[in-house]
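Recall that a protein's primary structure is simply its ordered list of amino acids. Everything else, from secondary elements to tertiary packing, is in principle encoded there. The following example makes that idea concrete.
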Amino acid sequence: MRLSAPKTIVFWIATIIAILAVISFLGAFANIFTIPLIAQNAFWFLTGAYVLLALGNVLKGL
């Protein structure tokens, strides 16, 4: 299997989703800042960001 670098937009979307999930989770943990939907499902948002990035590496056009 040949791997290819993901497109820039896929990389940035995955990075933004991961950053929002971490910030929202830590903000909810410290009672400072929260995005309710993301804070409640932070694990799944991080998993989705990782899967998106992995698919960007495996699939040639993504």
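DSSP finds three helices and no strands in the chain. Residues 16 and 60 are 22 Å apart (CA to CA).
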